[in-house]
From TrEMBL:
<dbReference type="GO" id="GO:0000082">
    <property type="term" value="P:G1/S transition of mitotic cell cycle"/>
</dbReference>
<feature type="domain" description="USP">
    <location>
        <begin position="25"/>
        <end position="133"/>
    </location>
</feature>
<protein>
    <submittedName>
        <fullName>Ubiquitin carboxyl-terminal hydrolase 37-like</fullName>
    </submittedName>
</protein>
<dbReference type="GO" id="GO:0005634">
    <property type="term" value="C:nucleus"/>
</dbReference>
<dbReference type="InterPro" id="IPR028889">
    <property type="entry name" value="USP"/>
</dbReference>
<dbReference type="InterPro" id="IPR001394">
    <property type="entry name" value="Peptidase_C19_UCH"/>
</dbReference>
<dbReference type="Pfam" id="PF00443">
    <property type="entry name" value="UCH"/>
</dbReference>
<dbReference type="GO" id="GO:0005829">
    <property type="term" value="C:cytosol"/>
</dbReference>
<dbReference type="GO" id="GO:0004843">
    <property type="term" value="F:cysteine-type deubiquitinase activity"/>
</dbReference>
<dbReference type="InterPro" id="IPR050164">
    <property type="entry name" value="Peptidase_C19"/>
</dbReference>
<dbReference type="GO" id="GO:0016579">
    <property type="term" value="P:protein deubiquitination"/>
</dbReference>
Length: 133
């Protein structure tokens, strides 16, 4: 897992943890990824969603294949961080994982936020049923 150690390091430092009130730092734009950033920023303001991601810690720490889940968790943990290089790497991993489930999200073409949001649960269901992703 490419960014596993960065995510764990941030978790251990409690960067952007749910117990603190970090002032959010923007997500980097990877090139026409406004749809992705807008959707994620909305999701990450939903406390129950973030809590459920963090409850899955055992899965994303123990399953090297859980890259989609670990990428979501990594971005939640990095909410308060201004480490743009790390955020960009984790954001790219999340985009890559979603594009494995829907080729529409490959490359740097502009996409629709609603379509991306709709794809996230679909990808998560596939991952849950196969135990990979």
């Amino acid at each position: 897992m490419r960014f596993y150690h960065s995510i764990i390091h941030c978790a251990e430092l409690n960067m952007g943890g749910l117990t603190s009130s970090p002032s959010p730092c923007r997500l980097p734009n990877l090139g026409l990824t406004c749809y992705l950033n807008a959707t994620l920023q909305c999701l990450f303001h939903l406390q129950p969603f973030c809590t459920q991601l963090l409850v899955q810690e055992e899965v994303w720490r123990m399953e090297p294949e859980a890259l989609l889940l670990s990428s979501f968790v990594g971005l939640v943990l990095l909410r308060g961080s201004c480490e743009m290089d790390i955020k960009a790497a984790v954001l790219l991993e999340l985009k890559d994982q979603i594009s494995l489930h829907n080729q529409e999200f490959e490359g740097n073409s502009q996409n629709d936020a609603h379509e991306f949001l709709s794809e996230c649960p679909d990808a998560a269901r596939v991952i849950a049923s196969t135990g990979h992703g």
